[in-house]
Amino acid sequence: MGSLTTLKVAVIGCGSIAKNRHLGEFDHNPNVEIVAVCDIVEERVQEVAEQYGVKAYTNYEDVLKIEEIDAVSVCLPNYLHAPVSIAALEAGKHVLCEKPMATSIEEADAMIEAAKKNDRKLMIAHNQRFVSSHQKARALIESGEVGKIFSFRSAFGHGGPETWSADGKDSWFFKKDEAFIGAMGDLGVHKTDLLRYLLGEEFVEVASFIETSAKDFANVDDNAVCILKSESGIIGTLAASWAYTAGEDNSTIIYGEHATLRLEDDPNYSLIVQYKNGEVVKYELGAIQSNEDGGQTTSHTIDHFVEAVLENKEPLIDGEEGKKSLEVILAALESMETKKFSRIN
């Protein structure tokens, strides 16, 4: 495992995602020691520090000066992802950054460059690739069993961050200058990453409606529907919403030549394969964990990051991958502004 056997980490930002996912999963990993936690809200960071028996900081720059820290999780509002990740990489720390990785391609490029220059790992926390049903579906598609893929539809929606975010309705999620983008950045970018992973190809064109229609207190999007086209001509829709008030939707349906795959679309079976010949195969692969289940200890994202650093392997979702998923979202925004199709480079 190289010279490192224990990864010493700091979590920067102690809101919901840190509390429900990062801290619990780092704590759960036998090869990790949490050394420091940081948040500008003194009370919040003290509480977390006490819970894990670690040191509390209110300034991330102080954390980056701690030599023994090998890696940091960046769990901050979107507009701080790039500057803090870059500062951490420059300080010689490996970085696991929440999604969307940045608010522009320039920022994403600067993050990738900083990781290269300092020979450090940069991983973006797109956890959808680690869901069993998604991995199984990718294997079925890759093996050719589904045949040519024609179309898809994917949705990711829930009632909105005010129900679970640390600051409720006052959360940064709803403020454009801090979030830059709403449901599309929170949920849409996850699905973009998943679809790229499942289909095994890039998107080349997008058209979108990105609206604020459900949250009268927000100035970011809360309802978005996009049409995407891939390199080989697969077309489909992606919906991202904070207005699915009666429950979460995290489903993806893929329509192929020999079969239709229904992912996370049935309450009991996380993957249902309906073959053209009438055969139906139902897989019970364990559900996606959501914050409602009382936090996460097994989204695999953290474990994957830890393994990548300790074994000096490239993480599955590195900066380049994060950037490609961000590019689709930025093109969708451009489409909404110009009222035209947007090309994705």
TrEMBL record:
**Pfam families (alphabetical):** GFO_IDH_MocA, GFO_IDH_MocA_C3
Domain annotation Gfo/Idh/MocA-like oxidoreductase N-terminal: ranges: 7-126
Q: What's a single GO MF annotation on this record?
A: nucleotide binding
Which domain of life does the protein's organism represent? Bacteria
UniProt-listed InterPro entries: Gfo/Idh/MocA-like_OxRdtase_N, Gfo/Idh/MocA_Oxidoreductases, GFO_IDH_MocA-like_dom, NAD(P)-bd_dom_sf
Q: Give every GFO/IDH/MocA-like oxidoreductase domain span.
A: 134-262
Gene3D superfamilies according to UniProt: Dihydrodipicolinate Reductase, domain 2, NAD(P)-binding Rossmann-like Domain
Protein name as catalogued: Dehydrogenase
